[in-house]
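Appendix B. Raw example, untouched.
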Amino acid sequence: MDGTILPLPGQHPDRPLVRFTDVVKEYAGTSAAPVRALDGVTFDVAEGDFVVVVGPSGAGKTTLLNLLGGMDAATSGDIRVAGAVVSTFTPKQLTWYRRHLVGFVFQFYNLMPNLTALENVELATEIAPDPLAPADVLERVGLAGRAGSFPGQLSGGEQQRVSIARAVAKNPRLLLCDEPTGALDDLTGKSILRLLHDISSIEGKTVVVVTHNSALKPIADVVLTIRSGRLQSMERNATPTSVEEIDW
């Protein structure tokens, strides 16, 4: 590996897309002892899984997402995505990884206010090697008629759909979502979950949703429960519940 271009891993049905092995993340604390945000976390996620990560505030959920997304580095342990050892990547390799394999969806959208919905999606595709057509992706999320609108002219649910379109237009293997329904009302939140679930079940993307809302657990293929930095449990739902049936 030369630090700039890596071979894009192919699909391997017999190999997990994501594998954490004994991952530890420590931060400097106010005392001499470091704060351990993740403590020996180990799990596997398959290609196309819809994963829900639940736990209370401060449990380590966002830390897990940041490590998986290449936005932070593990203190120790092994993180592999599509066979690539992400936990050993250099900064240049992590930039490649975020551009090629990962899409991000955040709670508060992070849209550029001076760009239209379409332009916000186009902005993400400019850094991706194999992007989808921005107008087509906006149509897929139900916003073809709002392509020329600015974020301030859109509802919260519409802004979140633009955020999802922006992430999906990069054509990533892995879609990471940090509390994507936290700022939305119940009805709009369910519509966003349906969209994310379809991206996983229909398009075969691996979607990881971090949430404090345990009501989302029944719709997941895999549920990871994090408490005090430890993986308390990993459950696989043989027959996930539809989004419409969950009690929000």
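End of appendix B.
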